[in-house]
Design goal:
mainly alpha; Serine Threonine Protein Phosphatase 5, Tetratricopeptide repeat; two-stranded antiparallel ribbon; 36 helices; flat; repeat; Ankyrin_rpt
């Protein structure tokens, strides 16, 4: 759920038509006045000590040469380089047109007014830079006056001709800022009294404290009203202006709890249906931030009580989620849809349950909320209350008819969720109310499995005490012991073993995963309690296989010390040495070889550890295997060599090492493909280059009469094709079907490759 707060929209006012005269500038720098007779001059306004245009911009006196011109009589101090500051005296009585003096070095320079200073910069000299660019990001004068809460200056500006709806960089008008500033001033005043604005809603309306606070608030609001009412009469004020977050002043006032400001804005005609960037209306914000009096005002003025934001939350969703029962009651009374669903298919009851508000849950049920409504995960409010551990809400829901054994999309019941998160009070309550202790989710998991996975011993004890099966398994095989071992819960493993849990439970992968994860103490305990160190899972993997695959050096050492069979093979005939050679675990490879592992052992497919290492690309492991006399040209059952493995995977350095150690570059597999065929097939440019340098036969053909060049065209490898041509590939070679490489490129529609080949022929 999103947090909806922040409001900026437009309201700015000013104008102050004054033309001016600059006199007696010090440091011999002056601006000369000329009669106001030129056609395209721009009138300026004096705001405090700052010159602004009628549009509200601080003025660069040379913004555009034809619109506003200035002459600078230069007599600057020695050493002046890029800029110079000089005081200027402004006479607000006279009109002034500023004209340039031609043929001076400063004709194109920029002059900015900052406070009471003339700022001259040479950024525009000789045409460089941007004419009239502002020296820094600024607020408009009216915005600045509001931020300072200078009421005299604000009034002066509002009485002028300036556009009151100008926006700052955040899109705020002066009215946005005024509302924010009132909040700051009010909070500061209340803080001095030790009060937070949200507390006001819960105060005794007849107390002296409440009445005093209301008086303070009304004083501030009256100040804003005094500013706005005259503007509204002029029809100049845009009450519904939106800032960059699409918030209107009414959004800001509603979300910040300014009841009096909300009342004022509504009286002036503010639109209650406007939505911000999250599609929240002012009513959404008032409901979310807990302002029932504002909710009443907005509803009275016709606010859409069932409006939805981008998450499809209604004001009732937000009031329920943020825990405001009085607002929930009010919204329902005024016709809010009690079973409305958001984008997650959550009803207000779901949200009250998940965030733990029993009074709101009770209220919603009383008013007719669907107690077994399901969200997009098919979870009911009871699922959520159980998952987040709210026993009072769980009890209330069940007593009002919630299905205690309802299943979510994944088949999990409220008891599964409570067990998984360790909410023992909720578990006891669910069991007391008839929850099925042996209910299964889609994977066959029981609530007790969830407790084991999450390592909650007390919950597990409770469930076993209530009749859960200590040896129950999921569809995939793991038992409680397996889950506990896999997740490293030593205390639970010890407890289960004490209670007689079966260690030899067939294909319990969890125990093997304990070895893979390096849970030394758990494996030691299991071995001590009778686990066979050479036990195999359903795929024939021993603890040693699992530990070597994950690079668990200490675990491998432990298992070997406890008598693990170093030659044990899985159902594919692979030993632990096969498994670890494919990874990056050279230290384990060395350990296994030192303990007597056969360096040239073959699995059922004829693969030796060097095949696995060459495919994996760990050059250090390959060096070690070769040092231990691994057969460099070993063939697996399809004739595939370690060099073929390396070339197909693109391991150039490995291929180079194998060739240096005697790998046969010309050997072919069962379909007569060489290492060059494989490298080209996979587009391995670096390996192709290496093989050609080492004398690979570029014209060699496979059983279909295809050269490596045919394969380059078959796969569209343009760079490889270029390399083969450069090294003498026969562009006209035909396969057994009579097709040349260019025929294949054309058939495959590799246009760039075809054009390259045609260019070669011509």
């Amino acid at each position: 759920m999103k947090n909806y707060y922040s409001i900026k929209c437009q309201f700015l006012a000013y104008s102050f038509m004054i033309s001016l005269c600059l006199q007696n500038c010090t440091h011999s720098t002056s601006l000369q006045s000329i009669e106001d007779s030129q056609a395209n001059t721009q009138q300026l306004i004096l705001i405090g000590k700052t010159l602004v245009s009628k549009q509200g911009h601080k003025v660069s006196l040379i913004q555009e040469q034809r619109k506003l011109q200035a002459s600078v009589i230069e007599n600057l101090p020695q050493g002046f380089s890029r800029s110079y500051l000089a005081p200027v005296i402004v006479n607000p009585v006279l009109n002034l047109s500023l004209a340039s003096v031609n043929n001076t070095e400063w004709q194109k320079s920029h002059t900015h007014i900052i406070n009471d200073q003339v700022y001259i910069t040479r950024l525009g000299l000789l045409g460089g830079g941007k004419r009239g660019e502002e020296t820094k990001k600024i607020q408009y004068p009216l915005h600045e006056a509001v931020i300072k809460w200078d009421k005299n200056q604000i009034q002066q500006l509002l009485n002028s001709d300036i556009d009151i709806n100008l926006k700052n960089e955040e899109g705020d008008t002066f009215l946005h800022l005024a509302i924010k500033q009132i909040k700051i001033l009010l909070n500061k005043r209340l803080a001095e009294l030790g009060i937070h604005i949200i507390d006001i809603e819960n105060m005794d309306r007849t107390s002296l404290q409440y009445l005093s606070i209301e008086a303070i608030k009304k004083d501030y609001v009256q100040e804003v009203a005094d500013l706005l009412l005259p503007l509204q009469e002029k029809l100049a004020l845009d009450l519904n202006a939106c800032n960059n977050k699409r918030k209107t002043p009414l959004h800001i006032a509603s979300g910040q709890g300014h009841k009096e400001l909300v009342k004022l804005l509504l009286q002036l005609g503010a639109d209650t249906h406007k939505k911000n960037k999250d599609d929240n209306t002012p009513l959404h914000l008032a409901a979310a931030y807990g302002y029932p009096s504002i909710v009443k005002l907005l509803i009275k003025k016709g606010a859409d009580i069932n409006a939805k934001n981008t998450d499809d939350d209604t004001p009732l969703h937000l009031a329920a989620a943020y825990g405001y029962p009085s607002i929930v009651k009010l919204l329902i009374k005024k016709g809010a849809d009690i079973n409305a669903k958001n984008t997650d298919d959550d009803t207000p009851l779901h949200l009250a349950a998940v965030y733990g508000y029993p009074s709101i849950v009770k209220l919603l049920i009383k008013k007719g909320a669907d107690i077994n409504a399901k969200d997009k995960d098919d979870d009911t409010p009871l699922h959520l209350a159980a998952a987040y551990g709210y026993p009072s809400i769980v009890k209330l829901l069940i007593e009002k008819g919630a299905d205690v054994n309802a299943k979510g999309e994944d088949g999990q019941s409220p008891l599964h969720l409570a067990a998984g998160r360790g909410h023992i009070n909720v578990i006891e309550l669910l069991l007391e109310k008839g929850a099925n202790i042996n209910i299964k989710e889609k994977g066959g998991g029981l609530p007790v499995h969830f407790a084991a996975v999450n390592g909650n011993l007390e919950v597990l004890k409770l469930l076993l005490q209530k009749g859960a099966d200590i040896n129950a398994k999921t569809k995939e095989g793991p038992s409680l012991l397996g889950f506990s071992a896999a997740f490293g819960h030593l205390e639970i493993v010890d407890f289960l073993l004490e209670k007689g849990a079966e260690i030899h439970d067939g294909y319990c992968t969890g125990i093997y995963e304990a070895a893979a994860c390096g849970h030394l103490e758990i494996v030691k305990l299991l071995l001590k309690r009778g686990l066979d160190v050479n036990a195999k899972d359903k795929n024939g993997w021993t603890l040693l296989h699992w530990a070597t695959q994950e690079g668990q050096v200490e675990m491998v050492g432990l298992l070997l010390a406890r008598g693990a069979d170093i030659h044990a093979q899985n159902i594919e005939g692979s030993s632990a040495l096969h498994i670890t050679s494919q990874g990056w675990h050279t230290e384990i490879v060395k350990l296994l070889l030192d303990k007597g592992a056969d360096v040239n052992v073959k699995n059922k497919s004829g693969v030796v550890p060097l095949h696995a290492a060459s495919e994996g690309g760990n050059i250090e492991t390959i060096k070690l295997l070769l040092e231990r006399v691994a057969e460099v040209n070993a063939n697996e059952e399809t004739g595939y060599t370690p060099l073929d493995c390396a070339t197909q995977k693109g391991h150039t350095e490995v291929a180079k090492l194998l060739l240096e150690k005697g790998a046969d570059i010309h050997v072919k597999d069962e379909v007569s493909q060489s290492a060059l065929h494989w490298a080209v097939l996979k587009g391995r440019v670096g390996v192709v280059k290496l093989l050609l340098e080492q004398g690979a036969d570029i014209q060699a053909k496979n059983i279909d009469g295809e050269t490596s060049f045919h394969w380059a065209c078959q796969k569209g490898h343009l760079e490889v094709a270029k390399l083969l041509i450069q090294n003498g590939a026969d562009i006209n070679a035909k396969d057994k079907y009579g097709k040349t490489p260019i025929d294949i490129a054309r058939q495959k529609k590799y246009k760039a490759l075809e054009e390259m080949l045609l260019g070669t022929i011509s």
